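Suppose a colleague, Dr. K., hands you the sequence of a protein chain of 337 amino acids and asks what its three-dimensional shape might be. Before reaching for any lab equipment, you can write down a predicted structure in token form. Begin with the sequence itself:
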Amino acid sequence: MPTYLITGATGFVGSHVAEAVAARGGTVRTLARPTSDTAALAKLGVEIVPGDLTDPPAVAKAVDGVDYVLHCAAKVGDWGHVDEFRAVNVAGLRNLLDAVKGQPLERFVHVSSLGVYEGRHHYGTDETEPLPESQMDGYTQSKVESEKLALEYHRKFDTPVTVLRPGFIYGPRDRTVLPRIAARLAKGDIVYIAKGKYALNTTYVGNLVDAIRLAAENPKAIGEVFNVTDGEFVTKKRFFEAIADGLELPRPKGSIPLWLAKWLAPWRERVYRRKNKPTPPRLTMATLKFAGLNLDFSIAKARAVLGYSSKVGFDEGMAAAIRWMKENSGTLRNPAG
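The predicted structure, expressed as tokens, is then:
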């Protein structure tokens, strides 16, 4: 059976990928810090290599003899200096790419983000659109740079890279984003931008796992980039109300116009940075993109080349996410309800 290195397997997306690969009989290996909770992976029979992406010797040990690299690990967030994100998302990726350079490898799937596109309204944007050199926040800037790095190794060294760009990933085992949204809903701390009418690029974690499998198996995917979403129009209003109703929390009330949000976000960021605030303001440029811009992207290429189709719709996927949150509320960072 083939051997898979799955980075980020102790996290949200990576744990689902590890579970799916193990269920198909593949040998799974991952990098994990000594402080990480690896109990669930141990039950799956996952081989744990101590260390992380910033440790080249550990990375070299992790990739030794693997057939597939499914790179799900990343530093995420909407606040912090870009170099903090680059240390993991770019330099860590370079360590991984250097370690597999020249090694027989079936596929290197790099999980990126739809956030790499320009921070504006999108209506069916596809993979032919060039990426901006400069992004509005450190996380997406590092993701643009990491994509370019991965594709550079494909061109220069024939590393069999495939890049996937999922949208907002949701589902069971999300211990950070949905719980944080729930906590803000509980406080009545969320206000719509433009009445919540614009689209959110939702991507159920199970659908993303399917896309990763297809990208790893299809030879036509090498050297290619694919957008991945649920392929369903979901407004911000529908998204927030699904969480509020599922957790029996108050729905958001009130709305500010988009033009005002576009003025407030950079102003508040400047103030917080000038004061060296460790936490972000309520409205950041990343929040503006997430809650205020129309984020509709074409997945026609993934459908045509990979044979991808979203098996789980938004209502079913969000119900699964909320059910998991309720069952695990005591272990979440921001429990609500």
